[in-house]
């Protein structure tokens, strides 16, 4: 056992999209800072950020109905959708900057243009979708959205979904061509290649086991080299815990008071993947439906065209499920060992409140293939079981904390937890997820480096022209940003991408 000890400016734990984004931002802002990354798996982007572990939706709130709730008077509140769209625009601008500067290449390897659609059935839902369309289509952020409840039009848009339906069925959809499919796994790997080229020391097969504050105001990490079995100790002035589902345990180990009274609840995901080329070819959109009553927002069913490895695929899901693991490669003891004296009451309160969710998740785990096919047939009436296989997706650990809404409240968003002195930050939660990585990492930078942010602002604005501004309130800037990012990322109609569909 060696006891090697080193000290650096920044340590990023985990090689997912969040660490990749923070590392890349910091290397642009302060190239001279020394950055190290420790990842317990063999390569980058193998957990939730991997292309097969998430749905690859560039979440801009164009199609996700859980961001646009119906108010009691029937009108639709689009404020959440506006917020998420604005956040996604920050990611688009940053990715564009990286492509323009040739820091990453071939945007078609990580982002593709793809219509985003919402689809609902039943009179009541059709009325809701129409109200939502009316509220959204007036907003410049959602320009270009179309609505139809005409079977002929819908057949043109979504032939696979419309075939085999009665002409009397009340069904409607909205469509917006400005949507995207994002391969977050490919993007994560590209960003790590770029970080290595910038002399960032990325250590794979290194598991962070403990985090302690030292007397010289640094953080000391106890790290196990999983190849040699040696224990290493590395010190840093600033630590980002970007361990995905592994972040809660690491936050607890840091002992910071801000990390207390917080728990985690894992929700797993399963997709159905189509293996019939003819069926795959009939769909060219992401089509989001409405969540079932009692279902958590992250299990809204959707039928997605995906572009993975230059190949068109078709996935349906995710079906939610329950596993006590916090990472797909995690341990069955993750949930139990996350319960500490300081969060046990919070966890128990959540357990009592969320019995129906737990029941729902267990029911989902027990679904047979034929029962899953029945859910798929709500989208594709003629779907055949032999055309579809099951694939296990990533784990999402939802945050449980005490809020004004009560003790042990389950959160469906993302939480950045930082120490009072800004020397350590952790990211918990997974929604809207990778799409808003740039917004969330800018939040980390603002909270942890307030003394530098003023000086860094011109560079941040160079990378992200709309930083600190509302695009909705600046239609000219919105137009400029959208045109420029679409051109650079190859998303505009004139930039049609060549794809070898196989
Ligand atoms: C089913 C599903 C569907 C999703 N769909 C979408 C979508 O359509 N669009 C979207 O934007 N987002 C989506 N998300 C969310 C998105 O995938 C996540 O928000 C994002 O990938 C999280 O990135 P991360 O870097 O925080 O975590 P991860 O990608 O999980 O990376 C964390 C890394 O930390 C490592 N690690 C953990 N503990 C340690 C340790 N102790 N020592 C060293 N390394 C450690 C892990 O091995 C892992 O590589 C989805 C997620 C799931 C599960």
Automatic annotation (TrEMBL):
Pathway: Carbohydrate metabolism; tricarboxylic acid cycle; oxaloacetate from (S)-malate (quinone route): step 1/1
The UniProt record lists the keyword Transferase: no
InterPro entries in the record: FAD/NAD-bd_sf (IPR036188), MQO (IPR006231)
Catalytic activity field: (S)-malate + a quinone = a quinol + oxaloacetate
Alphabetically ordered keywords of this record: FAD, Flavoprotein, Oxidoreductase, Tricarboxylic acid cycle
Cofactor(s), by name: FAD
GO-annotated molecular function: L-malate dehydrogenase (quinone) activity
Enzyme Commission code: 1.1.5.4
Glycosyltransferase recorded as keyword: no
Family indicated by similarity: Belongs to the MQO family.
HAMAP family, alphabetized: MQO (MF_00212)
UniProt xrefs under NCBIfam families: mal_quin_oxido (TIGR01320), PRK05257.1-1 (NF003603), PRK05257.1-3 (NF003604), PRK05257.1-4 (NF003605), PRK05257.2-1 (NF003606), PRK05257.2-4 (NF003608), PRK05257.3-1 (NF003610), PRK05257.3-2 (NF003611)
Protein name: Probable malate:quinone oxidoreductase
Source organism (scientific name): Fictibacillus barbaricus
Lineage: Bacteria, Bacillati, Bacillota, Bacilli, Bacillales
Gene: mqo
